[in-house]
Structure prediction request, 472 residues.
Amino acid sequence: MESPAKQPKKISPKKTPIPEQDPLVRKTNFEEVSLGYTPVQAKEEAGRCLQCRDPKCVTGCPVNVPIPRFIKALREGDFMGAIAIVREANLLPAVCGRVCPQESQCEKLCTLAKKMEAVAIGRLERFVADQEMQNGGSNVPAIAPATGRKAAIVGSGPSGLTCAYDLARQGHSVTIFEALHEPGGVLVYGIPEFRLPKKIVAREIEALKRMGVTIETNAVVGKLISIDELMTEFDVCFIGTGAGLPRFMDIEGEHLNGVYSANEFLTRINLMRAYRFPEFDTPVKRGDRVAVVGGGNVAMDAARTALRIGAREATMIYRRSLAELPARKEEVHHAQEEGIRFELCANPVRITGDGGAVTAVECVRMDLCELDASGRKSPKPVAGSEFLVPADVVIMAVGTGANPLVPQSTKNLDVNHRKYIIADEETGRTSRDGVFAGGDIVTGSATVISAMGAGRKAAKAMHEYLTLRTRS
Prediction:
């Protein structure tokens, strides 16, 4: 008698839910919101992967993590094998699993996403990275014999760390120059503890040091030392200084006490450890009513951080609708759960004050009209619709500009009209021989993983450059 045909496993249409802190509890602390999958939950979610022969998810990842391969290993219970596969392409899996916008990258191209929710690739990446940490931490990868060539990396953010990692693996001597007193760039000073714990970043940086990479902090390139001087000591240089120049709206009242750029606000919170108050008493104004202008991930981070350091009320002011918020959907959802108030289709026209201190943000209602160059509806002010949002702290999260120190202090380094360094998209080559660049200092503010992708491309081109010079 023939055995009955094996029935295909039924795939759940939705992602396996991930445990999270209760919103009423988490908004009073800086502990992680998402608690991560258990092994059972991770295997359940990994079982949803179709193991496509032509995995589009890989092409959606800026560093091309071999996603189906690591998920297959995870599904089979080989957690350490899974993380080893991830690390073939990604130096920072625990970081990317927490903060990357997977919904617009790898998960967007997941085959399941055509009819149901995509595989939770980011959550699975975080799981295997955390399993690695629980089992002794990351191992140093195989490193090629020393080449005798020296590479300088300016900036220790995602692009710089990734570039250093790939160059070190090729046997080159690598030194990172970081302007602040702690390495990590935006991973440390920009992203709040409740989204990305500092110990996660520190662990990955420690692994880089074990590979032989030297990190010099308090080294402000463009002030204390120039690119020209570095190039007399090093064979190649990578510039990954980011886009950390704050932007304001140039409206009345931005000079008042209590007005911050999101960069300053988050940097003070992160580097001065406000998340460990009262052990560390950070010099930042703890507002009762906080207004945050903007709708991106940085704006969301600022508003949620303000709640955690004591604000009774935090309001997001954004000139378009909820559907057009540029922040990650997960972050918007978490903010709503925590009680952040959204003042949508509104735009500030001035900040009011009393005795030099902020009292409110005067806004005007916006009407969404025809599509603009970005493909979104263009907001137009509605005459006579002015209203006040009471606030004693205002945080401007309306974008950033190129870090000016290196471009302004380096001869023959071409920049565009927005003062970003001009570099080849595929190689990171600049107008200066031997000088490469990537990440936000080239593209403007983007994602952690896209900056890492730029660092990888530049490292490949730098290795080829060094190899050719060695032969000649």
User: Anything to note?
Assistant: The radius of gyration is 23 Å. Residues 150-244+402-471 form a domain with the FAD/NAD(P)-binding domain fold (CATH 3.50.50.60).
